[in-house]
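A further point concerns the way the authors explain their paired sequence and structure data. Showing the layout once, in full, would remove most of the difficulty. For illustration, here is how one protein appears when written out as sequence plus structure tokens:
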Amino acid sequence: MTMELANDKVVRVSVQQGQQVLARKGAMLYYTGDVRFTPHSMGGGGGFPGAGAMVGMAGRMMQGEHVALMVAQGQGEVFYGRDGLHVELVQMDGSQVLTVEASRLLAYEGHLQTSIVPLTSQGGVRGAVRGAMTGQGLFTTQMTGQGTVAILSHGGVVPLTVGGYSGEIVIDPQAYVGHLGQITVDLSASVGFRDVVGRGSGEATQLKLTGQGTAWVQASEQKF
């Protein structure tokens, strides 16, 4: 399977027999060849004959973040996009974990492993507070394996190196897209009197990223 950008808002996936691509339901723009599309069932792999348990598990977990999935199988090319949002391809070599909200996922290779992780596992109570204050919620999605993932953003993304000479990175919560590698995300809040009375800078709450890896920041503070 190959996944590449048709332009900065559309991804093209070449599907071969025996392969599967998972994508957001309703994200298919057009396709060529003999390709079949099957909505994923909350019951697991039973929603599409022949699909593996791994794909079923991925679907159930993404459903936990309220994102409906569709599986494409067969032989041909499928083009995906959503609402004119920008698409970024993340290449995973199997050695690192990709952390991204399910709402950011456009499509990914079906053999990748996906899990829903509570934010409490990333800092205990501070993780839960972070999710509540940033609007992220209480869970996030983690992906492992070797393959390609297409993620969405407003206005495109900037990749940032975390660690090494760059040290820690501080990101606006609304601009944060995801990260790859051994990175810890913590809430950094500095709320003063002016923020309480509504006359602050509007930047009182931020995300502090430490560790080693790559983080992506979108060119907008608009979430979706």
In short: The chain has one domain: 2-41+51-218. Residues 87 and 207 are 23 Å apart (CA to CA).
